[in-house]
Amino acid sequence: MLHKIINLTVRDVRFPTSLEQHGSDAMHSDPDYSAAYVVLDTDCGLKGFGLTFTLGKGTEIVVCAVKALAGLVVGKSLQEIVSNFRGFYRLLTSDGQMRWLGPEKGVIHLATAAVLNAVWDLWARAEGKPLWKLLVDMDPKRIVSCIDFRYITDVLTEDEALDILVKAQEGRQQREDQMLKEGYPAYTTSCAWLGYPDQQLKQLCTDALKSGWTKFKVKVGADLEDDVRRCRLIRQMIGPNNTLRWDVDEAISWVSKLAEVKPLWIEEPTSPDDILGHATIAKALAPLGIGVATGEQCHNRVMFKQLLQASALQFVQIDSCRLGSVNENLAVLLMAHKFQVPVCPHAGGVGLCELVQHLILFDYICVSANLSNRMCEYVDHLHEHFANPVVIQDAHYMPPKDPGYSCEMLESSVKRHQFPEGDVWKLHQNK
Amino acid sequence: MLHKIINLTVRDVRFPTSLEQHGSDAMHSDPDYSAAYVVLDTDCGLKGFGLTFTLGKGTEIVVCAVKALAGLVVGKSLQEIVSNFRGFYRLLTSDGQMRWLGPEKGVIHLATAAVLNAVWDLWARAEGKPLWKLLVDMDPKRIVSCIDFRYITDVLTEDEALDILVKAQEGRQQREDQMLKEGYPAYTTSCAWLGYPDQQLKQLCTDALKSGWTKFKVKVGADLEDDVRRCRLIRQMIGPNNTLRWDVDEAISWVSKLAEVKPLWIEEPTSPDDILGHATIAKALAPLGIGVATGEQCHNRVMFKQLLQASALQFVQIDSCRLGSVNENLAVLLMAHKFQVPVCPHAGGVGLCELVQHLILFDYICVSANLSNRMCEYVDHLHEHFANPVVIQDAHYMPPKDPGYSCEMLESSVKRHQFPEGDVWKLHQNK
């Protein structure tokens, strides 16, 4: 079967999370977690599902961008695409007219991610495997052939990438078995969004500790005194041996004042574009034992390359929906390995946990072979809308078993939350 | 009069330039020069016109993004906006939901530029001045109040910016008189697009020399042997004392081989996101006397800041439609001055010459006070569609005299070229 792609649909799906202050932080006070949701239809009936994450308003722009890319996908067969996946990646990212809109950044790259995520989902389904297993079983040469090395060869050549993958084959089976048994370690962001009152914060911490969570992220950056108070409160709750992490908007002096509560890292302390700024902050915070983590708004492999070159980060936070899907994330995982910087993925939002778990499982089994200082973000929201939601056991991501990239949303959820015509939004308009 | 903005319209305007290979280079083989074109209506009848430049396909995405921003503009008065222009800039670029789509990059930032260009046009019209003169006459404090200094204070504080502007007041009147008399020096890109055959190239060079042009840009980067041949041909035509400039896609070795034809700079030799890569290339080419120029795809002030910090460029190529309008360009002009790197704007496309001439006039009169190694790109295309087209005399931009930012297009041109319903496009579809 060729799995010829005969149709692409894209929908604007929004969840009214702003009503409950879920997802609130210093830069995003009222997000409605949303997605541009893509479905590929093939001539044999198999479907591919993909998405990119957004925060509500403007999702229609990403939907518009996906439609602009659709003509490059529809009519091609899955085999045609994956037999030259690097070429297909370039086709999407280097169109002579559309690349001006990026290149490889912002709306057009988010749309590229949604489309490519659907292609990877389709590929994994066609092979009858969850995506992480498709990658784990894939020949290293084939993996490397999916990556666009343009603009990163000064740091990682194709041969070096191949070498990393071949070397990491040793012990692969044991690590896969370990993951199937124990899962991949997670940390939680669900307890301490900026908009939550103290009482809710305390209750959520207590509940999380009972469920086995030992690592917590706290949203900060709006008011320093308030931050210190909230962090002390959480540090009291979780005790001295559990790990605390941060999001802040301003940098060195602010974080220095929070050093008493022993955060492991500070997250995206300045403009996500400011590589040299992150490097300065990282250098200043090193003596305090606080690392810099960044990546959820790092828009492509070229930016990650420079963050690594400049020693600007101690934790690489890949995102399954901002980078150009699995293809570009593979490049970042391999570069991070070369620099020996641990990858701790960004997750949460809509579907980010579902998707990124596949990538971090692959990273452990086939690239890093290391769990030290590594964990994957987890947020306990909106999983009920997915056909194959994540499974968390004792604060670990358990490897998905269903074929695909876990991107499929329940059709009933999509219908209810489609913007602006779904029932959920009609209801809000009538209020 | 308050000039309350009561309506915003945006249209997708495309010119079928790909049919004649105008604008062709190594990365953009078939551009249709296009624009998302914005008109603001006010309650007093005055209009503001703005645009951002695109390459054809995908312009509808930028149009969609402008519509998403419209709600932040319509209903406000011009006075309300310009009395806190920094705040308004942040409102557009930091919306809690939409900033995820950038922030300050790609489609959403191009749309921001189009909207803000229209606001600046409206402001200049309300004051009855061409935009450059509005800026030249503006109190330095007022100018500084238009700039968002977030993420650049490590290089340029508000006080430093003010200091630069105050210091440059000396000799301002003479420089303004000089500009009115002589105009601002330009160089031409019209002669040597990649897709032009040799005979056309020769004829265009001959004509240009006759009209007083002494500085030429050559598009290269597709085939090295072909490049060397084309460049020798042009160097033969223009003689040893005229300046030659470059666009290339690959870097050091390629350019080293072109050194014989003595280019002044090589333009955007690698990924526009690769600050450290540009720095490496700049260092390698310095002994050959070739500088690095970049900026037309540099997406915001934070990226320019780092290019300057890293000594990654010897010529700053600002763009009137990719950066966040005048506001963000002011920040870049001031940073470039601090680092003493000359600004040589990117122009061409649709309307880029019309707009950017205002910025470079302001730069000379009120910031740099220097013409050494400075010139503004010029391309002789599509000016006939503008209400106040640029005036070139003896290879110099003559300062515009009509009120506004020279963004207004002829309504008849807009109607004919609207995509896909304009006559020009209906015609192509029927062929």
TrEMBL record, chains A, B:
Gene Ontology biological process terms from the UniProt entry: carbohydrate catabolic process
Enzyme class: lyase
Names of the cofactor(s): Mg(2+)
Membrane-crossing residue ranges in chain numbering: none
Catalytic activity field: L-fuconate = 2-dehydro-3-deoxy-L-fuconate + H2O
Highest taxon in the source lineage: Eukaryota
PANTHER family in alphabetical order: ENOLASE SUPERFAMILY, MANDELATE RACEMASE, MITOCHONDRIAL ENOLASE SUPERFAMILY MEMBER 1
InterPro entries from the UniProt entry: Enolase-like_C_sf, Enolase-like_N, Enolase_C-like, L-fuconate_dehydratase, Mandelate_racemase_C, Mandelate_racemase_N_dom, RHMD-like
EC number: 4.2.1.68
Name of the protein in question: Mitochondrial enolase superfamily member 1
A GO MF label: magnesium ion binding
Keywords on record: Lyase, Magnesium, Metal-binding
Domain Mandelate racemase/muconate lactonizing enzyme C-terminal: 198-288
Cross-referenced SUPFAM superfamilies: Enolase C-terminal domain-like (SSF51604), Enolase N-terminal domain-like (SSF54826)
Family of this protein: Belongs to the mandelate racemase/muconate lactonizing enzyme family. ENOSF1 subfamily.
